[in-house]
Amino acid sequence: MENREAAQGQPRKRNIDRRGFLKIGGGLAAAGAGVYLLPGCGGGSNNTSGEKETIRIVSSLPRTGSARGQTNTIVNGIQMAIEDYNGEIGNFKIDYVDWDDATAAAGKWDGPTEKANAQKAIADPDVMAYIGPYNSNAAKISMPELNEAGLVQISPAVTWPGLTKKIKGVAPDEPEKYRPAKRVTFCRVCTTDDLQGPLAADFAKDELKVKKVYILDDKELYGEGLAKLFRQQCDQIGIQVLGQEGIDTAAIEFGGLMTKIKGLGPDLIYFGGTTQTKGGQLAKDMVKAGLTCPMLAPDGCYEQAFIDSAGAENLNNRAYVTIVGLDPSQLTGKGADFVKRYKEKYKNDPEAFAVYGYECAKVVLEAIKKVNKKDREEIMKAVLATKDFTAGAVGGAGGWGFDANGDTTLRQVTVSRVEGGKFVPKKTVTK
């Protein structure tokens, strides 16, 4: 994990040679701190020398803290997509800026920073698309800002369904409160938790033969929401819920909690949360307290950082994690080609959401190609109109598209088990 952190809210500069970016005209040109310059790219929309105008794409992701390993690969995926076009589409050069929505103090995403990123994007007339955020709670903050401004937003990773549609018994003012302009401007390339939560419960009963479960969550929109959806399905299929509670994510350890849970004799502990909200520490303390049952967690823990924080020895063959989509090892066709190219370029394996960073950028770039105008409204319409999309790395020969809510029509969930310090897919369900 790299440790070159950017100042809060500011774009970060990149080592251009390391990222494979090329020299332009024998020298390096910069449009401003943190702008990725691809072949033929400049910075700014003035066209005094007959050069192509600039269209800028920005991303807002937690680049500080333990999520950085995951978001590094998302950013790499975005870069690879832009490189597919040699940094130029039609009449325009493509610049990419990587913004951090996390702070060192929090160690994860930060609300004011996410809001500031959205406002910066809106104020920059060259920005035509906003990729992100990574966290569902962060999306609650940037979505209304970008919606009012009419700037398209596409996320590779946020999965809370209430951001885009009504969920029975949860937040009756969703999703309307995220759409002050009364139109859809947000979309995502990943499946939502109304599939992930229930399918996790089905897996627990059918594959793990669970009869009794204890549910924990991190009290955040994503984690608490998933825990509720998981519990609803448990109630429907006959899994007894021994208890449910939100944890204090500021706590250093959870030994007392695990000792209490051990006394109840659960067959499984389900955690609705992320690595950043103590998923790894919970797993570690389970083992320390003598709990022998497995742990099941959602895609917020589907990253190497989760395994590293818990210790592989505490997870091997007893920790299961779901992901909205496929593990990189399961990708075929263009997806497998993406994984191969990624490994060749970056000399390591992509994390699970790298392909979705690539997919987000491909959707935006194809929309720009179709419109061939520097027009936020037209580009947004083209993005949201995506159907039968096969230009990216997911979806196979049949492709995928966005529905009326901005959600992907590709609905898949994979359950993997940690084996030998790695995620090994065990079951994939497509609906």
What does this structure look like?
The protein is an alpha/beta fold and 431 residues long. The chain folds into two domains: 16-190 and 332-400, Rossmann fold, CATH 3.40.50; 193-323 and 413-430, Rossmann fold. The chain has helices spanning 16-19, 68-83, 111-123, 136-149, 193-206, 221-237, 255-262, 279-288, 304-310, 312-315, 334-346, 354-371, 376-384; strands spanning 35-37, 53-61, 88-89, 92-100, 127-131, 153-155, 186-188, 212-217, 240-246, 268-272, 295-297, 319-323, 412-419, 422-430. Strands 1, 2, 3, 4, 5, 6 and 7 form a seven-stranded mixed sheet that branches. A hairpin with a 2-residue loop joins strand 3 (88-89) and strand 4. The two termini are 36 Å apart. 53% of the residues are buried.
Radius of gyration: 21 Å
**Largest sheet data:** 7 strands, mixed
Parts with pLDDT < 50 across at least 5 consecutive residues: 1-46
Number of helices: 13
Mean pLDDT: 89
Terminal-residue CA separation: 36 Å
Per CATH, the superfamily of the largest domain is Response regulator
Please identify the structural class as seen in this structure.
alpha/beta
What string, H for helix and E for strand, traces the elements in order? HEEHEEHEHEEHEHEHEHEHHEHHHEE
Share in helix = 25-40%
User: Any idea what the shape is?
Assistant: globular
